[in-house]
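Example 3.2
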Amino acid sequence: MEQATPLEQPRAARAALNERALANLHGLPILLSIITFALGLFYLAVIPPWGGPDEPRHFEYVRLLSNKGGFVGYPDIDPAVMNEIIRSMDSVNYWKWGVTLWKRTAPGELPKDFTEIYGEGAHQLHQPPLAYLLYLIPHNLAAANGIRAQLYAMRLVSILLNVLTVLAAYVAGRELFRRDDGADDPTMALALPVFIMLLPQHLFLHSTVMNDHLVVAALGWMLAIMVRTFRLGLSIPRVLGMLVTLGIALASKRNGLYGVPILAFAFLVYIVVHWGAGRLTAGQRAVRLVGAAVLAALALVALVLAWNWTTVNVPKLSEYIVLLFLLLPTEQFPMSLDARYIQPDALILYMQSLRRIFISLWGHFGWMNITLGVQAYWGFAALSVAAAAGLVWYAIRDFWKLFAYQRAVLIVFAASVVVALALILAIDARGWDLGWEPGSSGRYLFPVLIPLATLFLIGTRAFVPRKGYVWWFAILVVAMALYNIIVLGWFIVPFYRA
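Structure, written as tokens:
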């Protein structure tokens, strides 16, 4: 923290009191939940049915689960289900504003199946089932009310998952920016959930049906529990909480894999911070390190034994994990071991992926076909560069003034973003090798949005004096609110209503 001069001390004290009053408003989690849900309902009302990326295909998965009453795969594809969805898509003029390969050539003509609309990869039945089982609840509750009612009921679950994500950001912010010496940082603690709550791309997608949302909520809470663990120490409930949320993420989508290296790295950092220094004697540190090594070895042995058992007794599951979930090299999806991934041409492809991720993180709505214009993205690029410069300045000036647990969390947060980007680019590289179209998107960073937003906000505030923190927070809220109004009023609504 900056030291105020004697003349500035009364003003700094008033600023600190204003910050604490802001952060100690009664019922903040309830208020954040209500606002998040209300914003989600507003976006839900604006976005027409099937306006979310892959929404017809996600809905098909849930409908097939409902019809079969058990897990489904590609042999369970039902033309009648596709035809019902296609008719509903036609009723909202999907062919005018949605992504489709199919074009109408005669009045009343409709595509016969999803392959005509989307080509290869026309279905999402390769995805893990957990998120779809969750969506199955509202789908069945609205079963008697028609397909649109079922879709909107499922979208309500997406909004509730967004509420859970915002609450996870609130908990993470409160834990990270709380100090035992009384020098809390309440505006930053509150800015984190507010930024995530008001990010338009996040709001748009969380008002549609998508299996990403359960991953985002699960890893958000894993990170929130992790921050609390760094502050208060390891405990069985916290360890179980992180493992359970990681398991939920893994059972929802492939990008739940982010959590595995993040937790592993966090544990190494925890060992350095909590066991490598402090009040522990050399003997106590040795005992804990040996215990951790033994537990890690036992966990590795257990995983190997479980994998061997699965390979023998549930071969279809092991094949699915290798072939589709991990996308490891197989006879069906081979990999050429050469230097193509580090050649100059490959660098161009990586830069194109990063550009696509950046644009669709800030605002590339609909089926990534509602753009804001190049000037807006250059503005976000300038803001991001300024935030990166501020983050460097913060690291030089203030990083070592933080408590050890705060430094540790910020290091893990930075590593989390790197892990997510590396895995996204790795999947794109596998796609290039197989001749697929790149599929990277900013929403693949949403599982690490809490770390990303934390670093971004710290960077944007680094050059603001201590007494201006409340004003910085107010400007942030107003700017994000205006951004929502602009994208809704000038881009999203006109695109669908034109």
